[in-house]
Design goal:
The chain has no helices and 36 strands. By secondary structure, it is mainly β. The chain folds into 5 domains: 2-60, Immunoglobulin-like (Sandwich), CATH 2.60.40.10; 66-128, Immunoglobulin-like; 140-229, Immunoglobulin-like (Sandwich); 234-307, Immunoglobulins (Immunoglobulin-like), CATH 2.60.40.10; 310-405, Immunoglobulin-like (Sandwich). Strands 12, 15, 16, 19, 20 and 22 form a 6-stranded mixed beta sheet that branches. The protein starts with a strand and ends with a strand. Mean pLDDT is 82; it is low at 67-84.
Length: 406
């Protein structure tokens, strides 16, 4: 007795086959151990004797048996859900539906499937967070920031939302960078949405767009970065500035920067100078020039000394003057001092004549700007004491002359 197998090979009784799973007994029985779908096919049994031979074909069909599913073991107690609960339902296709989900629904859900081959279990962990919210910026307004050349700058883009939004930066050149990637060694993205720019250059200036995204929505804001230059002062005094009291004083403070800086002067009294004014003795001290722009400020201190001394009458008429009626009398009075003194004459009738202006008449008297008093066509009534007074902000000086008209 021998068998022709499905692959065409032959196996004789009571002899080992090439396949250890197959064996033919003396009585002609064919045994196949641990059959598989590969054993499907036709098997032919051949019996031979001295009188002849006989054949029989057997077709073997191996049916696939459903294997027992893999069982996921759990030590937790399970609550079985029935079809048709008010808020929780299991559909016929096995889908679990939870309506109006609540934080208390956070749990481990176990789905169990059974058939004749066994059962299988799937575990689903459900976490119910607080109410979902679209992103919102902590500072929703567009910003304009000025940074100095070479000084590290931080652009803020903090956003809230549920789930936590992803921060996306778009550079002025259109490059998009997310919080998951670093752009290059000059830029660093922080976990809180910040963009750090190291050693900013002029080409880093421009419009930066910051976006915050989760599956509830997307928002965006604009940050304009100006990379400016701190002001610097071009002119500096070589020492102490000396000025005459009463004279205009010019203090120069030329500066440059980006953007163009504004210039502010602080005078020694601590006040900001708002208009030109003549100097006085009280103006001495340190004058502070500040050049300011959005990138910073530069400060220049200018020490000033004001030169001043009180009047001193250098030219004066004699103490007594005699004159003839009708003949003009000239009384000279000149003074020196800083600031320049003002000359006035006090007449015998106590009236006062000032030298300010181009010369003034008072009756028969004429006073020139230089301080000379001329009495035209004098009479006996012009006799008396004439007083020349020189005055400035520091002090006064005077001389007295008695005029006798004969």
């Amino acid at each position: 007795m021998h068998w022709v197998l499905n692959d065409g090979s032959m196996v004789r009784s009571n002899r080992p086959a090439r396949n250890p799973r197959i064996y033919v007994y003396v009585n002609g029985t064919l045994q196949i151990k641990a059959i598989t779908p590969a054993d499907n096919g036709k098997y032919e049994c051949i019996a031979t004797s001295s009188t002849g031979s006989e054949r029989r074909v057997v077709t073997l069909i191996v049916e696939k048996q459903e294997s027992a599913p893999y069982i996921v073991k759990t030590s937790q107690r399970m609550t079985e859900l029935f079809f048709g609960d008010h808020r929780i339902n299991v559909h016929q296709n096995g889908t679990l539906e939870i309506r109006n989900v609540r934080p208390t629904d956070t749990a481990e859900f176990i789905c169990m499937a059974r058939n004749d081959g066994g059962e299988a279990v799937m575990v689903v962990q459900l976490e119910v967070t607080s109410m979902l919210r679209r992103p919102i910026f902590k500072n929703p307004f567009n910003e304009r920031i000025v940074s100095r050349f070479g000084k590290t700058i931080v652009l803020n883009c903090s956003a809230d939302g549920q789930p936590t939004p992803e921060i996306i930066w778009t550079f002025p050149n259109g490059t998009r960078v997310t919080s998951e990637h670093h752009h290059d060694s000059q830029h660093r993205l922080g976990n809180n949405g910040t963009l750090v720019i190291y050693n900013p250059r002029k080409e880093d200036a421009g419009k930066y767009r910051c976006g915050a995204k989760n599956f509830m929505g997307y928002i965006e804001k604009l940050i304009i970065l100006d990379v400016g230059q701190k002001p610097y002062i071009l002119t500096r005094p070589r020492g102490i500035i000396r000025s005459m009291s009463g004279e205009p004083l010019f203090l120069h403070c030329l500066s440059d920067g980006n953007p163009k800086p504004g210039i502010y002067w602080t005078i020694p009294g601590g006040h900001t100078l708002t208009r030109p004014q003549d100097t006085t003795l009280h103006d001495r001290g340190n004058y502070i020039c500040r050049a300011q722009n959005d990138a910073g400020e530069a400060v220049l201190s200018v020490p000033v000394i004001i030169i001043a001394y009180p009047p001193r009458i250098s030219t004066a008429p004699p103490p007594n003057v005699k004159a003839v009626t009708g003949t003009s009398i000239q009384l000279n009075c000149a003074a020196i001092g800083i600031p320049k003194p003002e000359i006035t004459w006090e007449l015998p009738d106590n009236s006062v004549l000032s030298a300010a202006g181009q010369g003034r008449h008072l009756g028969s008297e004429l006073l020139h700007p230089q301080g000379t008093l001329i009495i035209q066509r004098p009479t006996a009534s012009d006799s008396g004491t004439y007083k020349c007074l020189a005055k400035n902000s520091v002090g006064t000086d005077f001389k007295v002359t008695y005029v006798h008209v004969l």
